[in-house]
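I'll show a typical protein example:
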Amino acid sequence: MIVLLVYFGLKFLIKLATPYILRYISKKAGQQFEQFFGNNPNASTQREKEGSISIDKDPSHKPKTSKIVGEYVEYEEVE
């Protein structure tokens, strides 16, 4: 009887505490996310004027593509 009372008591307490625990975990995760991405040196702190152009990538570096797709395999059509 005591085991059942403890089981149902813990089950009830966990149901009551779950929203608070999840809120705490999400708040901590948000703080860590903000700390990790908040110190990004590439992010501009000022808003640029409308119509201004900024280029973040160097266009002179283009990846080389090869025209070779695969090897040719001969086959015979079977009827």
Remarks:
- Residues 69 and 75 are 18 Å apart (CA to CA).
- Residues 1-36 form one domain.
